[in-house]
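pinned: reference chain
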Amino acid sequence: MNPFSNIWNHPKTSVTGLLIALVTITGVLSQQGITLGNAGSGTIVTLVGAIATAMLGLLARDPVEAASPVSSSAKLGAWALIALLLPLPFLGGCSASTVAQDIVNWTPSLESAVATVDSTAALLAPQDAPVFAAATIGFDAASNLLDTQAKAYLANPSANLLALLQTQIVALQQQVNAALLQSAKIGSPASQQHALSAIQGVATIVTALLALVQSVSTKAAVARMAADSTIKLAAVQPYINQNHAVEIVAAHYGEPVELARVQVAQAEQGTALAGF
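pinned: its structure tokens
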């Protein structure tokens, strides 16, 4: 198919695709600290992202064709709304206090995921349980410390407490990544599946929190965090069930799975591009 004739024949679809690309690119640029200059009290990058998002909202309100129950216009509007509803952290508009509060809000889910990890050793083969227990032994203390530091920042926001939060989220991320790699070496297929599934719940939440902290960190701070992240996301990606990750995010924010899928993809893309 000739791409130029396709653009001409389907202008609305083409424009929407371009706007969604702009929203995604501006979100990544903001996470990397690239501004392209100032625009009023904000930056050119965030301004372009906001305009693209607003235009997507207008496209999403276009009338739906009645030719079929699920027309192409309806699908187009759905994806436009997904881009419109992307939360501010992905567009660089979140504050450190908001992120700290989001970490606190995630704490019950994180505690539940860690409790699942703690109880999983009993499901593994006798020779595999010690390996799993050793790999995950620090989850409780690290997750509790992250929650404590987030609450401390909420009570008294400061650069020093934000730096502690940055250090702790990376430390927890590294513990989780190391546990995934260790569990992937478990010989019994059944034990390995149980182990990886349990750790994934923690890994998904930690990746989300890392993306949030990254979104309110300076370029220098992100570089420091990335340097401390020696086990990269790419190394553990093969052991992550993306559908499970999407379900966890969708359930936490009470949002459609399609929107959560976009958010998870953006978070992973942003952290990977930053060097995590």
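why pinned: Residues 93-273 form one domain. Residues 60-93 have pLDDT under 50 and may be disordered.
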